[in-house]
Amino acid sequence: MDPAGSKRRWISQLRETFPLTGVDLIAPKVMARGVYGFPFPDPAEIEPAVSYLRQRFHLALQRWPFLAGQVVQDEGDQHFKLVFSHDPANFSINRFPDEVFDFQVLGTSDFAWTYDELSMNRVPPSALTRDVFSLEPHNPAVGRPNYPAALRVSFIDGGLLLCFSLDHRVVDGVSIVQFVTFFSSAETAGFDAAYFNDLLQRRNAINTIQNGTAAADLTRLPNLDVAPATPAAPPNANLSSVARILAFSAATVDSLHARALQHVKLSHGTSSFLSKPDVLGALVWQHVLRARRPRLQPDETARFASACDLRTRSADPSITGPPAYFGNMFVRSTASGAVRDLAPAAEARRPVTLQRVAETAWLVRRGVATLRHPHDVAAAVRLCGVAGSSSISNAFTYDLDKGRTGLSNSITTRMGADVMFAHVPGVRPGPPGWVRKTYSATEGSMNILPRRGGAAGAADWEVSVALRVDDMDRICAAQELGQYLL
């Protein structure tokens, strides 16, 4: 079978183009692959479970028919486009190629882990390879069309794993949770004309803002520098990297947060605010910097990137859409500082102090607060439309330089750990046992993983970090970050 040929034939049947916004166009060119794990003790329930899951995926694609299309960018095209066929009356999952939905049964000779073993070992990242569990194992590329949504259902010894693969250029994390929540619900109505038309109107309104003549005040957005437009690739040491999940108890994070917040209120005013992810991110960033410090120059700039949801940053929904807007509404914010200030050489042999963590968390919070004013939000949306192509993403990637001085953080605490799956045959009603991403060891990547209760509750905090092997060994040492780990 020729997958590329299959996709090309499928594209030839697609007649409509879905409107994309500037925020879509600068989104990371990656597939977001989320794996939801459930105990599944009875193999006799496999057939009814597959039938049910196929129908739920069918309904979800009815609700968002553009996710049943294709993302295409041919050689020479400045932008990608999303083409689809909108025909709710004759919509059938049986028309889809096999690359959109399939299932597999993996015996212990195919997959070494049982579900219980995975869970007891906090689901080691390397166990969930995208080639095995994802229907879209490759990230988007020019000249290679891809499906914006796919689901692979995998049955392992004692467990069920659902791997949703969605194109990050079409949907962000908030939208993915909406998709999975609808998928897991008892809702029987797929396509909703009023909802779909409202979504189109919202997207067209955002594009109207982006295409407006009012110039964005780019000086208020220093963390979205678009120069150079086509930078050279950052230097790459070509050293092996590894991803690990670092676990912290809720009590440890609560204590660090309370003490750090007290410090910044005393130092920066009683209205100062820090979130728990701010503090946890700062704690990890500090120890990563210390691990890298021997090969960095004191005057180099270290950066910590975070994703900010614009839905929550404007009282004017015409700018960003409502909280339930389906699509992309995240832009990146960056905290930065000189290496000599963030990780002084004089402190290299002493443990990281609470004051150092608190001030670093305050730096992270100030980076996020860059997009606090409605003017900044409107400017960010306009900037996405003005820059439009990959220039912002290219410049950001170059400046962040994750392989040397940068750390890119994704906060996915609310990414599905509390979604209720009440009707899957063979699965006890309730939330998934765990939620993970497929394995990636891209150096300088950090992910605060989905957690029951989001930022509240008593569940452990888990952070996936990818670093050079020697750096990982350093940060996990007992006198370094290891002192906080479970």
Structural features, described:
It holds the Pfam family Transferase. GO terms for molecular function: transferase activity. Keywords: Transferase. InterPro entries: CAT-like_dom_sf, Sec_Metabolite_Acyltrans. Helix content is 33%, strand content 18%. The N and C termini lie far apart (47 Å). Residues 213-238 have low confidence and may be disordered. The radius of gyration is 23 Å and the shape is globular. It has a 6-stranded mixed β-sheet with strand order 8-14-13-11-9-10. The chain has a 5-stranded mixed β-sheet with strand order 5-6-7-2-12. The chain folds into 2 domains: 3-209, Chloramphenicol Acetyltransferase; 217-484, Chloramphenicol Acetyltransferase (2-Layer Sandwich), CATH 3.30.559. It is an alpha+beta fold and 486 residues long. The chain is built from 15 helices and 14 strands.
Under the CATH scheme, which architecture of the largest domain would be assigned?
A: 2-Layer Sandwich
**Largest sheet descriptor:** 6 strands, mixed
Specify the structural class: alpha+beta
Mean pLDDT: 84
Quick one: CATH superfamily of the largest domain? Chloramphenicol acetyltransferase-like domain
Q: Assign an overall shape.
A: globular
> If you consult CATH, what is the topology of the largest domain?
Chloramphenicol Acetyltransferase
Beta-strand percent range: 15-25%
Question: CATH class of the largest domain, please?
Answer: Alpha Beta
Gyration radius, to the nearest Å? 23 Å
Assembly level: single chain
Low-confidence stretches: 213-238
Distance between the termini: 47 Å
In total, the number of domains comes to 2
Q: What is the string of helix and strand elements?
A: HEHEHEEEHHEEHHEHHEHEHHHHEEEEH
Total helical elements? 15
Strand order of the largest sheet: 8-14-13-11-9-10
How many strands? 14
- Helix fraction by DSSP (H/I, runs of at least 4): 25-40%
